[in-house]
Amino acid sequence: MNPCVFMDRDGVINVERGTYTWEVENFEIIPGVPESLRKLKKQGYLLIVVTNQAGVGRGLYTKSDMEECHRYLSDQTFDILDDIYYATSHPDHSNSLLRKPDSLMFEKAIARYRIDPGRSWMVGDTEGDLVPAKKLGIRTIYIGSMPDAGDDQLIAADLSQAAELIIKNQ
Ligand SMILES: [Mg+2]
User: Fold this and answer.
1) Do 159 and 121 contact (CB within 8 A), yes or no?
2) Ligand 1 centroid to 87 CA: how many Å?
3) Active site annotation includes 8
4) This model's pTM is above 0.70
5) Which range (8-17, 115-124, 146-155, 161-170) has the least confidence?
6) Residue 4 C-alpha to ligand 1 middle, in angstroms?
7) How far apart are CA 147 and CA 95, in angstroms?
8) How big is the CA angle at 116 (ends 83 and 13), to the nearest 5 degrees?
9) For the chain, which residues make up each domain, given as ranges?
10) How far is the CA of 155 from the centre of ligand 1 (A)?
């Protein structure tokens, strides 16, 4: 059974622009991300991105636009990511259990990669990223400031800080 660090994409890996990001020109990787991924990989973690990409379901951009961004991401991060799971449905058009806060993307990854939830982490910048992880017994780190966070919610400024917390608390 393997430990894994799950990560949201927009706002954790690349800059959250407040709108959909599907063009490589706008896919700005947050400073420190490649190095943090390398550090976590050295500790033996699988690295898996789980991202809602409802813009595909809404017809704003295509799956191949998204895949081009993901190829760029892999190029910029030493091909270190083990997988990227995405949910393309938009709730206005169709419901999917893949879409966070549902947990099917996590469950698929856990089965495929034989992941031990109890030794794994989810790093996200919205409450909806953390809900499915908590449900499955995966520890969570919130990126940003969460005024009403409970005392037991770990919070970090960015993925670099989150990686330090993970290494300290493993
Ligand atoms: Mg996000």
Assistant:
1) no
2) 13
3) yes
4) yes
5) 146-155
6) 18
7) 30
8) 35
9) 4-169
10) 15
What's the CA gap between 115 and 55, in Å, rounded?
A: 29
Whole-number Å distance, alpha carbon 9 to ligand 1 midpoint, is 6
Residue 106: its pLDDT value, please? 98
Is the model's pLDDT at 149 over the cut of 80?
no
Q: What is the rounded radius of gyration, in angstroms, for the C-alpha atoms of the chain?
A: 15
Exactly one of 10, 102, 129, 158 is catalytic; name it. 10
Q: How far are the Cα atoms of 17, 66, 132, 138, 169 from residue 44, in angstroms, in the given order?
A: 31, 28, 23, 16, 14
Pick the CATH number of 4-169 from 3.40.630.30, 3.50.50.60, 3.40.50.1000, 1.10.357.140: 3.40.50.1000
Distance 42 CA to ligand 1 centre (A): 25
Catalytically annotated residue among 8, 102, 125, 129:
8
Pair of tokens at residue 157: 């400024």
User: 79 catalytic, yes or no?
Assistant: no
| Residue 145 pLDDT class (50, 70, 90 cuts) | confident
Question: pLDDT over 90 for what percent of the chain?
Answer: 89
Is the pLDDT at 148 greater than 80? The verdict is no
Query: Is residue 151 pLDDT above 80, yes or no?
Result: no
